[in-house]
Each structure stands twice: as C-alpha cells, then as structure tokens.
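Problem statement: downstream parser choked on a complex file, so we are re-checking the raw output for the magnesium ion run. The parser issue turned out to be on our end (a line-ending mismatch), but while we're here, posting the original submission so the record is complete.
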Amino acid sequence: MDHPSPDTPPQLLIGEAEIAARIDELARHIATDFGPDFVMVVVLKGAFLFAGDLLRALGRHQVRPRVEFFGVASYGAGRQTSGDPVPWTAIPAVTGQRVLLIEDVLDSGLTVTYATNALLQAGASQVRVCALLDKPTGRRTPFDADYVGFTIPDRFVVGYGIDWAERWRELPYVAAVD
Ligand code: IMP
Ligand code: MG
C-alpha cells in the first residue's frame, strides 16, 4: 500500500499510564488556576474520553463542573481540515458563565477559534481552552491554549477517543498512523 488508509495499524505514541498521569497534573493545575466555578464544554466527538477522565480527575480536586457538549465538524473522512468548522449541535447555554472548552487535538486552530467565538457570542463571560494534544506547527490562525496535555509533532494521531474516518477511537493510548 503506497498511502496509509484507515486500516493501517497505528503506532504507539503516548501510553495509557502517561496519559493518566498528565491528566491528573492538568486537573490539579486547572483546580488551582481556574478554580471550581466553570462549565465544561466538550467538543464532540474526539474529546469525549479525555473529558471523562479529566472530569473524574477534577472531582478528586473537589471541582465538579456542569458538563455540556458542542458538536463541531471540520474533517469529514480525510486527514486534512476542511478549513471551515461547521456546528452540528446547538450551542450550549453558557450565558454569564466561565467556560472550560475541552478539545482533543489543536492543529490549525480553526476549530477552537470557531468554538471559542461561538461561546463568547452566546454570552460566556470567559472561555479557556484545555486540549489533550497540541500540534503547534499546524497553525493557520494564531492560538494558544490555556492547558495542554502533550505538545506533539505534526503527525496524524488516533486513539483515546480520536478517530480517523471514525476508526480507532477505542484504543486506550494515542497512536500515529503516518
Ligand atoms: P484544527 O481545526 O485544524 O485545529 O483541528 C482540530 C480538529 O481536527 C480537532 O477537533 C480534531 O478532532 C481534528 N484533528 C486534528 N488533528 C487530528 C489528528 O491528528 N487526528 C485526528 N483528528 C485530528
Ligand atoms: Mg474534533
């Protein structure tokens, strides 16, 4: 096969124990830095496992936020962003609330910029972003996340909730397919 396809077996990049340890550090940092008073808004679908583990880690630090979901599509079946994020759920009700936006991968920055602006327009008083993975070399618009799990090179990753054409979300670790 000349090019990888969604069938190509992924290679381990970040293991389960490393992810769990980093999420505990992130939760401790968020609890002390952002405090307990915020709504967690999870960007669907790739961030759902990360958000679940982060939520439980926050609970161990006595932080118990309301949880909402925001569907934003940008990829379709390919490995390149369409460049035009499209919402596929209603914007969560966040008027007057501080928001912690949970994203799986930050790449071009377009998805998180779109979601942040949508939540601010919906009346959020503040939006901070927590991303499991950051690929800073992929930026097409400047964006700095407030909390980042791991900074990674510009590789296409799957696992731990993150898909390629809806495959590989079930892997308990983060893997690269290129
Ligand atoms: P951005 O809009 O280019 O920053 O891309 C962010 C969105 O694209 C995220 O919500 C991810 O779901 C998806 N994405 C970015 N990089 C990857 C990847 O390596 N694997 C799978 N999805 C990715
Ligand atoms: Mg996504």
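For whoever reads this later: Residues 43, 46, 74-75, 81, 103-112, 156-157, 162 surround inosinic acid (ligand 1) (CB under 6 Å).
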